[in-house]
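Design a sequence for this backbone.
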């Protein structure tokens, strides 16, 4: 029986290939979009972290992390933690002595790092509990990727020595493939010194903390532990701390904390994908209803010959199942092809980015989605078409009135619902487009066009003192500025949009220290060479910039941004004011004020910044900023050549245009905008197709009536208007429902938009107007074709 129905269904679908293809493509687009998005949601939000008992892992979040002293207090006094580990922000180190020097990413951790996560090595071992005590020889653990890339997967490297920044470190072990924490790009791990007798570093070195909950412990209980211990941490500092210190400290599931930055975007895209699939299902159901009307004669005949309703439903269900399977296969292929695109557009710091893939869970999701979709779009049309009352079916088959028949009213309602959902997607996409446009045109405070950047890190063993470092940088700038197409070149330690700002506390001459430790703060501190402000086009507002007179043995100087000046010297002449940095012995004189610069995001407000000259600070790895007259590609090659001619062991990495770096900072916004636009466009196409189809079907069924009216003298213009108004009425009904729905839903976009009114009347009006205009066009085209038919021919055919 099933084999017979299957053959019959295949023949039925093959007789109308365009119809079958339209449904398969419609479903494939909706299922494919949801498959791709689910692969990301599954990898980041649903799939368990690849650690032992991942649900027991929590992140202990405090603003900036806990000092090592505070970490030890929490470890000793926390009653609901089975284990705690800490890690510092990843840093770059230079590997030398093994071929070409390489710049690697190193994370400094406490010895408990690997045991708390519950991961072990594939070669060697991890750190011992006493590995961070004073006097222990430096050691390191390698990532599996570095083990393969740099050491040829040779297990003999365990116990061997690698040189990092001129320091020999013993390789203790190699981690398994796929392990990367806190980032997927971490190459190696080393312990951080923890010496309570060195008070400055013990309370001045901060770590992010991850804990493992004890038996029967809850996140709430761990939060109570943290709340109880934070005041003791504040009291433990050897210098005054403000009363507000640690007030925002939180304990959260580790997985939640890792994906917090992209979770809202993923939920939004999941909802948008669901809307797109809903539109696809509605459109498919409408197509099947239309086809059902055309098959009324066939169904009536089969019912008259004895076919029961269950037999008719089964036959139609098999057809729908075949269409659904076709859409599911196409959706799987589209989803698989889209995963790489999504991965490329997600922010580079997205956790577990490399794990995003189409695996068995995504396959099961697609199969389930296909089954659900087949049920949703096929059940109602099959039930309607298969009514066994042959007299009713024949009567409806004879009906020519476009308003007659519940099936036509149902079809019209489905089209109106498509328009409503499309309006919601269109408004959301319009707001994100405005936001993205505002971001792209936000003023970062400098001029990034025609600027090339590169990171350069002279190894410490080659440049053992600050004077040698500065000589290297002076020669580097001299060589770079002599290039025929170089307009300007400079150096900076923490380039905007490519490094976390370094917060710098200071003391203002003539003002007492605040009693509660609310030190004056520069929320960003940068070390720069002369020419930096001119190279980036940062305006000088008062005073002067750094020059060759600011030598190491000259009086110490600094330049501040406008916001820092206004915060601490709002009504004073700032030039000539003096400040002192922690542990500094000399007063630093402020010699200039420059414009504000955004440091991490185009959507943020500029932050108060302090600049110090490279010649008067301890040299660090620096970033080259070079402004060129022509193309940047030749300048990139010249950068490599100049650096390697000066010192063969100095690596130069991350050579990128500054505009590209800024563009990467809006990757999340770009992805959200692009996908919502795609979903809105898909909904618009399907909705317009539905309007076109229902108007076309209506006027085709009324050809005889229209011909009679034209013969009796009716104006063609009025007949055309009446036909068009039927389609426009559906669009207006959908807009009337969709716009209020959008008003209720758009507040959820609040954290994803920049300088955009979520209730922007222009956006709502444009979406409503565009849908109405396109609906008018979709109604006009088939109506015009119908009223231009020859009345005599229509009467003969009717």
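Sequence:
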């Amino acid at each position: 029986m099933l084999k017979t129905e299957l053959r019959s269904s295949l023949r039925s679908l093959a007789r109308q290939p365009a119809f079958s293809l339209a449904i398969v493509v419609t479903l494939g687009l909706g299922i494919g979009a949801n498959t791709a998005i689910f692969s990301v949601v599954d990898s980041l939000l649903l799939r368990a972290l690849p650690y032992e008992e991942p649900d027991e892992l929590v992140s202990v979040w405090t603003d900036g992390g806990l000092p090592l002293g505070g970490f030890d207090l929490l470890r000793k006094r926390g009653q609901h933690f089975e284990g705690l580990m800490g890690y510092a922000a990843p840093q770059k180190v230079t590997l030398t002595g093994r071929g070409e020097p390489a710049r690697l990413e190193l994370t400094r951790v406490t010895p408990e790092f690997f045991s708390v996560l519950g991961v072990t090595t594939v070669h060697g071992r991890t750190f011992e509990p006493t590995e961070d005590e004073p006097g222990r020889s430096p050691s390191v653990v390698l990532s599996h990727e570095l083990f393969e890339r740099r050491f040829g997967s040779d297990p003999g490297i365990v116990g061997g020595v690698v040189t990092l920044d001129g320091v020999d470190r013993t390789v203790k072990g190699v981690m398994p493939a796929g392990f990367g924490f806190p980032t997927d790009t971490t190459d190696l791990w080393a312990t951080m010194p923890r010496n309570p007798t060195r008070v400055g570093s013990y309370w001045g070195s901060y770590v992010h903390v991850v804990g493992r909950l004890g038996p029967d412990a809850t996140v709430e209980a761990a939060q109570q532990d943290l709340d109880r211990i934070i005041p003791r941490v504040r009291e433990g500092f050897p210098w005054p701390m403000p009363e507000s210190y640690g007030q925002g400290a939180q304990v959260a599931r580790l997985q939640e904390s890792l994906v917090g930055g992209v979770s809202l975007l993923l939920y939004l895209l999941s909802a948008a994908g669901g809307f797109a699939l809903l539109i696809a299902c509605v459109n498919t159901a409408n197509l099947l209803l239309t086809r059902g009307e055309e098959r009324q004669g066939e169904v009536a005949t089969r019912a008259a010959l004895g076919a029961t309703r269950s037999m008719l439903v089964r036959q139609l269900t098999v057809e729908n199942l075949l269409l659904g399977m076709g859409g599911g296969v196409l959706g799987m292929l589209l989803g698989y092809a889209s995963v790489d695109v999504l991965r490329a557009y997600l922010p580079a710091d997205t956790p577990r980015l490399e794990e995003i893939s189409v695996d068995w869970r995504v396959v099961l999701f697609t199969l389930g989605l296909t089954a659900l979709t087949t049920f949703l779009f096929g059940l109602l049309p099959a039930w309607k078409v298969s009514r066994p009352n042959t007299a009713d079916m024949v009567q409806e088959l004879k009906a020519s009135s476009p308003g007659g028949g519940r099936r036509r009213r149902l079809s019209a309602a489905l089209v109106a619902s498509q328009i409503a959902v499309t309006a919601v997607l269109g408004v959301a996409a319009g707001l994100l487009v405005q936001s993205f446009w505002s971001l792209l045109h936000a003023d970062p405070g400098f001029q990034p066009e025609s600027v090339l950047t590169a990171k350069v890190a002279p190894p410490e063993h080659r440049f053992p003192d600050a004077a040698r470092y500065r000589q290297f940088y002076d020669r580097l700038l001299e060589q770079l500025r002599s290039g025929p197409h170089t307009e300007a070149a400079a150096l900076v330690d923490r380039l905007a949009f490519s490094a976390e700002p370094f917060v710098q506390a200071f003391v203002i001459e003539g003002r007492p220290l605040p009693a509660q430790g609310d030190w004056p703060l520069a929320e960003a501190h940068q070390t720069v060479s002369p020419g930096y402000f001119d190279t980036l086009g940062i305006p000088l507002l008062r005073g002067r910039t750094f020059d060759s007179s600011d030598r190491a043995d000259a009086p110490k100087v600094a330049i501040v941004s406008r916001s820092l000046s206004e915060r601490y010297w709002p009504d004073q002449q700032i030039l000539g004011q003096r400040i002192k940095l922690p542990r500094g012995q000399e007063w630093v004189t402020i010699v200039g004020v420059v414009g504000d610069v955004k440091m991490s995001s185009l959507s943020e407000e500029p932050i108060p910044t302090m600049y110090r000259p490279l010649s008067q600070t301890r040299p660090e790895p620096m970033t080259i900023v070079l402004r060129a007259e022509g193309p940047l590609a030749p300048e990139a090659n010249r950068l490599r050549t100049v650096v390697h001619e000066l010192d063969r062991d100095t690596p130069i990495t991350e050579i990128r245009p500054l505009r590209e770096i800024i563009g990467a900072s809006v990757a999340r916004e770009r992805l959200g905008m692009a996908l919502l636009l795609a979903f809105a466009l898909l909904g618009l196409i399907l909705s317009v197709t539905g309007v076109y189809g229902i108007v076309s079907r209506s006027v085709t069924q009324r050809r005889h009536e229209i011909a009679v009216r034209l013969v009796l003298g009716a104006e063609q213009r009025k007949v055309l208007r009446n036909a068009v108004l039927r389609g426009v009425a559906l669009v207006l009904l959908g807009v009337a429902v969709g716009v209020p729905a959008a008003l209720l839903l758009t507040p959820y976009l609040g954290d994803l938009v920049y300088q955009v009114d979520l209730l922007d009347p222009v956006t709502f009006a444009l979406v409503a107007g565009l849908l109405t205009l396109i609906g008018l066009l979709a109604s006009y085209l088939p109506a015009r074709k119908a009223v231009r038919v020859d009345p005599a021919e229509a009467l003969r055919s009717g």
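The CA atoms of residues 299 and 713 lie 39 Å apart.
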